[in-house]
């Protein structure tokens, strides 16, 4: 129901009005300003002027007067304005409400007071000395004080422990009403916190309007209105805390750090709480502290390994039941029969616990809240606890997923290591077979031919051309077989490392092809599996350049930085169409590149190749070193 207000001077003319009064009277604010009370409200008693002056002189309110305006029955109450510098002000403050429906019931004072009391907004009138002169029922309710505890006190005393929105103390001269008295400036939606009787912080949104009589430049009073925004502010702070925790989960912050911050969030939003997150053992039979930043070390040691069961305190019972358990008084609750003395020794009188039920139905953890006095949960406490359970569930399941991924990675690395080891062993076997069998046979055959040739020259007999050709072919085959043996298992790779082995490979390429080779190698010794993989990659890329590129220049670079190896092999040769090369059905010649890429990706690396016909080819690859 709209309530109209106006300030009236000694001549009974309206000097200030609000929008509600304009709506009630059907006039604009401009029409109301300067009009006399008797002109605005028809049907007023003839002695209205004398009643108004009596209010000014006696400083005593008169309520329950009625007038008719536009078919409405309006109730008008007359209140004295606050004193200015200790001197009574010449003027009135009138409050107008629509009493049409209840006029037949005489619009009693009780009814009027009930309407005012039902207003959600608290209202306080302050005089020029910043002393409270009046308040409504909502002000009493919001502040948790009786009228006698509010009226007559200095405003700075009533809000002496106020804090700013950021929680820092607010000096009394920063209060909106005090500043309005000093400067005449109005203030809107200024958030301040005050402690209630129960010690809880009550957050208020304050609005102050100066009270000015005609011709006054400095307020002789202030109308201070306020609403309780505690729930709104709590919700905002809770949402902000939730967002920070979700960011920690998303950025893969370690689980203990997330749960520690979560416990602190619960303690911040549930006054007097000490929070702990308990981990459930793999067999589901015991509990272990996971995050408890504020619990005493001795208590944590005592509850480490506590059993899960039907009467095992709040946490063990909550996990057993798979539902929240709220123990209001530890001393009398049978669930704590075996732990009551322990709790008493550490000053705990109440304990709530809410299990974290994962998507697969398991219970990996439970969240406990301890209090130093018997306490039942309020709705706000339950909301905070439910949010904490939700965030804990998300964090734990993300950690489970990451652990599964890490296990998969460990298996992948193990498979790769075993594959490369098996390949190296096979290469070693083949190289040994070539050395011990094929090369020995070829070398023995070459020696036999040489003996025949020497005998023929000694005896003066002619040397058959076919035998000379066979000797040359056999020598060439022996050289190629030896080179193949070294390519299959280069001795330098095992004895001196990747850098020397690649350098020897490129020196051989330069000797064989007569091309320029630019080499940049800046590496320490790596693990045998990594060195083998990188060497085979460079070997395959160099072999491709030798076979297909017809290049005059070759560039190879191997460097390491930030735990990662970066490799490059480029040539200025004929190049190829990479789009067609990706289609195996059209370009079978590049299956070797596919094999290189697959091996690198299996090792957690990457591979890319750039090439255009006539413009050469550049292959790049990367590989993690840890």
- Strand tally is 21
Highest-level CATH class of the largest domain: Alpha Beta
Major sheet: arrangement of strands = 13-12-11-16-15-14
Q: Oligomer, anyone?
A: single chain
Mean pLDDT: 84
The helical percent reads: 40-55%
Shape call: elongated
Estimate the strand proportion: 15-25%
Number of separate domains: 3
- CATH third-level topology of the largest domain: Beta-Lactamase
* Poorly predicted segments: 584-589
CATH superfamily of the largest domain: PAS domain
Radius of gyration: 46 Å
The end-to-end distance, rounded to whole angstroms, is 72 Å
What's the CATH architecture name of the largest domain?
A: 2-Layer Sandwich
Largest sheet descriptor: 6 strands, antiparallel
Based on helices, strands and strand pairing, what is the structural class?
A: alpha+beta
In short:
The strands form four sheets. The protein has a six-stranded antiparallel β-sheet with strand order 13-12-11-16-15-14, with helices on both faces. The longest helix has 81 residues, at 379-459.
């Amino acid at each position: 129901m709209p309530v109209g207000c106006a300030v009236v001077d000694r001549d009974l003319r309206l000097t200030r009005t609000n929008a509600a009064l304009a709506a009630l009277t059907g006039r604009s604010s401009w029409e109301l300003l300067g009009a006399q009370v008797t002109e605005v409200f028809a049907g007023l008693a003839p002695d209205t002027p004398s009643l108004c002056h009596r209010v000014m002189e006696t400083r005593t309110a008169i309520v329950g007067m009625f007038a008719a305006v536009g078919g409405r029955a309006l109730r008008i109450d007359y209140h004295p304005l606050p004193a200015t510098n200790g001197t009574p002000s010449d003027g009135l403050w009138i409050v107008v409400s629509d009493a049409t429906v209840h006029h037949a019931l005489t619009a009693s004072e009780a009814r009027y007071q009930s309407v005012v009391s039902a207003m959600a907004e608290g209202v306080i009138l302050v005089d020029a000395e910043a002393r409270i002169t009046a308040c409504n029922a909502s002000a009493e309710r919001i502040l948790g004080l009786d009228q006698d505890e509010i009226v007559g006190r200095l405003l700075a005393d009533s809000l002496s422990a106020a804090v700013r929105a950021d929680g820092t103390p607010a000096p009394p001269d920063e209060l909106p009403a005090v500043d309005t008295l000093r400067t005449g400036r109005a203030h809107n939606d200024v958030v301040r916190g005050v402690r209630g009787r129960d010690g809880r912080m009550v957050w208020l949104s304050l609005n102050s309007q100066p009270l000015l009589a005609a011709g006054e430049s400095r307020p002789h009073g202030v109308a201070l209105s306020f609403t309780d925004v505690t729930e709104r502010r709590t919700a905002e702070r809770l949402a902000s805390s939730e967002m920070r925790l979700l960011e920690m989960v998303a950025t893969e912050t370690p689980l203990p750090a997330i749960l520690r911050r979560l416990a602190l969030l619960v303690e911040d939003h549930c006054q007097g709480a000490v929070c702990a997150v308990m981990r459930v053992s793999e067999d589901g039979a015991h509990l272990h502290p996971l995050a408890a930043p504020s619990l005493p070390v001795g208590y944590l040691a005592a509850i480490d390994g506590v059993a899960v069961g039907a009467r095992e305190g709040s946490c063990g019972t909550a996990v057993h039941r798979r539902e929240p358990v709220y123990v209001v008084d530890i001393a009398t609750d049978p669930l704590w029969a075996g732990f009551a003395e322990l709790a008493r020794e550490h000053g705990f009188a109440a304990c709530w616990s809410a299990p974290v039920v994962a998507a697969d139905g398991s219970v990996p953890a439970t969240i406990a809240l301890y209090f130093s006095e018997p306490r039942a949960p309020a709705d706000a406490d339950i909301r905070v606890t439910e949010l904490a359970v939700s965030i804990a569930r998300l964090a734990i399941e993300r950690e489970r997923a990451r652990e599964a991924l890490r296990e998969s990675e460990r298996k992948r690395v193990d498979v790769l290591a075993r594959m490369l080891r098996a390949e190296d062993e096979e290469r070693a076997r083949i190289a040994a077979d070539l050395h011990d069998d094929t090369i020995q046979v070829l070398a023995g055959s070459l020696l036999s031919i040489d003996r025949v040739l020497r005998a023929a020259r000694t005896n003066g007999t002619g040397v058959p051309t076919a035998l000379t050709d066979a000797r040359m072919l056999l020598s060439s085959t022996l050289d190629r077989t030896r080179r193949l043996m070294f390519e299959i298992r280069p001795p330098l790779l095992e004895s001196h490392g990747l850098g020397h082995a690649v350098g020897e490979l490129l020196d051989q390429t330069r000797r064989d092809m007569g091309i320029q080779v630019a080499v940049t190698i800046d590496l320490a010794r790596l693990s045998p599996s990594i060195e083998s993989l990188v060497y085979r990659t460079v070997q395959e890329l160099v072999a491709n350049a030798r076979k297909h590129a017809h290049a005059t220049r070759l560039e190879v670079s191997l460097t390491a930085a930030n735990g990662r190896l970066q490799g490059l092999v480029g040539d200025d040769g004929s190049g190829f169409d990479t789009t067609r090369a990706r289609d195996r059905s059209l370009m079978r010649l590049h299956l070797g590149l596919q094999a290189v890429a697959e091996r690198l990706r299996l090792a957690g690396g990457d591979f890319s190749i750039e090439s255009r016909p006539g413009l050469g080819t550049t292959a790049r690859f990367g590989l993690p070193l840890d």
